[in-house]
Amino acid sequence: MSTTTEEVRPVRDDEDEQPTLRHTIALLTARDGDTEFSWDPRRPIEVNAARDHFAKLRAEGYMLYRVEGEERGEHIREFDPHAQRIMAMPQLQGG
Q1: Residue 44: left if φ>0, alpha if ψ -120 to 50, beta else—which one?
Q2: Distances in Å between the alpha carbon of 39 and those of 2, 25, 30, 51?
Q3: N or C: which end of the chain has fewer CB within 10 A?
Q4: Tell me: the pLDDT tens digits for 6-52?
Q5: 19-90 has which fold?
């Protein structure tokens, strides 16, 4: 799969009346329950915060999957600001 750099377009003041887009990173853990981190892909500050959160989860060993509709998730190693939903799950340890 090739990696492309996509430009994130800032939201103009006159666009503030449009519905906010919320994309989500969902963290699934048995110990702490489920938590979500969301961002609007049109807002560069929020995209950067989500990118940082994604990198932190990867550094902590979480497996991250892009989920579209009811389909099985695709394992991703790089943050995609346009992914509507990303699931983060602890990596399973063998015994």
Answers
A1: alpha
A2: 24, 9, 24, 10
A3: C
A4: 455 555 555 555 667 899 999 987 777 788 999 999 999 999 999 99
A5: Ubiquitin-like (UB roll) (3.10.20)
Q: What is the dihedral of CA 83, 58, 72, 42, to 10 degrees?
A: -10
Please write down the HEC assignment for all residues of the chain. CCCCCCCCCCCCHHHCCCCCCCEEEEEEECCCEEEEEEECCCCHHHHHHHHHHHHHHHHCCEEEEECCCCCCCEECCCCCCCCCEEEEEECCCCC
Where do the domains of the chain lie? Answer: 19-90
The single residue listed with the structure tokens 């666009």 is 15
Whole-angstrom Cα distance, residue 31 to residue 38?
Answer: 21
